[in-house]
Amino acid sequence: MTEKTIITQALHYLSPDLVSEISASAIIKEIPKDNEILREGQYVKVIPIVLEGLIKVFTRHKDKELLLYYIRPKESCIMSFSASLKNEPSKVFAITEEDTTALLLPVDKVSDWINQFPDINTLFFQQYNLRYSELLDTIHHVLFDKMDQRLLDYLKEKVRVTNNNPLKLSHRQIADELGTAREVISRTMKKLETENLVKQLANGIEIL
């Protein structure tokens, strides 16, 4: 399958002329798992659209991190899009959750396409609506849910987006993504296991 065919299938809702422009200017890149593709404070040069795989987007404050959302196939990073249009440094950082194939749109071209091809806004308006909802959910969990519910919801979401159960996760990694301490996760995980909601294995965690 040619790159143009892959791009056409992924962006079938855009006009043929715009898809042709994207095919001529964008590149498809294979990115290994656990690869940082965007750093906080970095100026955005390309906007990714995930074709295969999964990317997670974080925010960081002092020594704490918090998982904001995942970028799944056929989705993009609205925070990168926003920062690029304003020519501002990124307020988030992004890491591949698994081996990922991404279509990388050059920022200078995207600015031109917005003026020439209004239908490109279809992609980014969809992403704004999706991320707004997800960020509200994240805020709700942080402010109102107890840690056991936050942890269980986090694990269920991880199973859903990765299609893996058991999950190969350490307590340290979970703590980093939920913005808490490893000891808190270990204590809460034991509580969930006692309630027969999860099972801790030698190399991972199974959701029951």
Automatic annotation (TrEMBL):
Q: Which UniProt keywords apply?
A: DNA-binding, Transcription, Transcription regulation
Boundaries of every HTH crp-type domain copy = 145-208
Q: What is this protein called?
A: Crp/Fnr family transcriptional regulator
User: Which InterPro entries does this UniProt record tie to the protein?
Assistant: cNMP-bd_dom, cNMP-bd_dom_sf, HTH_CRP, RmlC-like_jellyroll, WH-like_DNA-bd_sf, WH_DNA-bd_sf
Species source reads: Maribacter litopenaei
Pfam families cross-referenced by the UniProt entry: cNMP_binding, HTH_Crp_2
